[in-house]
Amino acid sequence: MARLRLAALVVVGLLAGCAVPGTPEGERSRPVPSPVELRLAGERGGSGVVLAGGPAAPYNYAPSVLSVDGGFRAWWCSQLPGVGPAGDDILSATGSAPDAFGSAVPVFSGRPGAFDAMHTCDPSVLRVDGRYRMYYTGAAGEHDHGNAIGVATSDDGLAWTRAAEPVVTVSGGRHRANTYGAGQPSALHLDGWYYLMFTDTTARGAGWNGAGQFVIRSRDAEFRSGVQELTSRGFVPERRQRSRSVVDAFSADWAWSPALNAFAIAHQTAQGTRITFWDRGFTRHPYEPVTIPGPWREGPGLVRDPSGHVPVDETDPCGAVALDVLRATTLAAAPTDIRHYGVDAVDVGACAGPQRAARTLQGFAVPNPVRTVDIITGGARLRVERRSVAAAMAVSVLDSRPSSVDELPVAAEIPSGAVALRSPSGELGLLDSDGGLWKVPEAVVAANGSRITDVGAQRWRRHLDGDR
Prior knowledge:
Elements: H1 7-10, E1 39-51, E2 60-68, E3 71-78, E4 89-97, E5 100-101, E6 105-108, E7 119-128, E8 131-139, E9 147-154, E10 161-162, E11 182-190, E12 193-200, E13 214-218, E14 228-231, E15 234-237, E16 253-257, E17 262-269, E18 272-278, E19 290-293, E20 301-304, E21 320-331, E22 335-346, H2 354-360, E23 365-367, E24 373-377, E25 380-384, H3 387-393, E26 410-414, E27 420-422, E28 428-431, E29 437-439, H4 442-447, E30 452-454, H5 457-464
Parallel strand pairs: 2-20, 25-26, 27-30
Antiparallel strand pairs: 1-22, 2-3, 3-4, 4-5, 4-6, 7-8, 8-9, 9-10, 11-12, 12-13, 13-14, 14-15, 16-17, 17-18, 18-19, 20-21, 21-22, 23-24, 24-25, 27-28, 28-29
């Protein structure tokens, strides 16, 4: 049985709760708003196994799931005979929906002679700036406290290049009967920061059984510099104290929800997958926890976008938030039978006020009364004349216009037939009415009826930087 299968051994019967830590000094005198109870609808899932390594794989668990490029990609922990050293492997599959994945492909195994020589498990995958990164648990053998967290990069999500050394090891603050160590990472990218949540059974802030989830962040994706750790005083330069846990659980996953303006942490309880919410500064719970019911045997993987965010609902971005998870549901040699479950939080008011609307509708287009279309970007509106251009540039074009976007400033206007520039490297961009350059794919240029002008690197950069 795999050394890394921690949660199935120790989490059964655990009542996963969340002890609210100390509040930062500046917040203590302010009244704390009560958490909002979310209204739920659309419970779904559980009809069949969606991810499996095939008959030869004795277990399948710990999925990481991305909604990407119009489809879905998943990576999860399994074991296949004849693939790498004896130990945990990571498989991958693509699909058209969270419950419609194709065949598994092995992509990651132990690396002889390294910290991850025997086991690689618990993947958490992001794609930022076109580059995939996988954070994973690795172990050289079966010895106590042998688990550490590694990172690997990839252009396609299949062939990976690993960092030589782990990015997280045990803090060693306490020695407990549970000698798992550090692992079960979950990563997300927000406001230029890479956030990493993980288990460390030696942390000072872990429970008696080693349960707990700890958070670090850095602007460096490999956490080699500028690392900060979350404490009761907020984020401070890392000292590896790990005194504050954000949820009393093992094998958790998380995502940032723009619509809710909150972190959503998925973890297992006796009733199913509980979602615990934290505000941006980890000072309070803005919402009451919600539960996605159903059977489970190992922690869940939230369906997330490439940055590790909850995907914004394309048909009702202001009102609905889809919370979907994949999780192992039965126990054979180890947890297996990964199935899909989900529920919608509805009537969330995600466009109440211009700031919330700007966060929620980032990349969406809304109709304008003057027969143009506004694309919401960077807290402002980019006005385009042709709806076909907006459809090619935006995530989606909404049928109705939330009134709150009227308070957002107009950043620029791109008229029909605006001049298109092509850089020496082949990049394309449209010039707005002020001479600013907006990089776009060729389909947008065609939809706008624009004529392409080849320019040198200096002129391209001048327009791109706003130095007209």
